[in-house]
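Category: protein sequence paired with discrete backbone structure
Discipline: computational structural biology
Format: plain text, a pair of labelled lines
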Amino acid sequence: MTTFRKDWLLVITATGPALLSAYFSWHLVDGGGWFQRSGSLMVLFAAWLDFRQARLLAEASPEQRVELSLLMGLSRAQDDPRRVWFQRLAIWLLITGTVIWGYGDLPFR
């Protein structure tokens, strides 16, 4: 399995439970409990994706290494744009999962 296929599998695994549980929480009227719990799964798989991206960058040869500054949005020309995109997506999923985990039951009340 290629590297990017594994990354996409982690993205789908992170978002899938949240989407399914949101659907079932609306139709089963369980108070959003399952949706809220799905936030923890999103955080788990997003952290895995983020650690994976960091490891792949750390294992790169010195010529391939880059200095990333996600807070400033800077990257060099030799950055693989897909790798940077997956890192930013992982951070976004971590934040979203944390919000769902903490407040996911509120829309269902």
Notes: Residues 66-78 have pLDDT under 50 and may be disordered. Helices lie at 3-28, 33-58, 81-103.
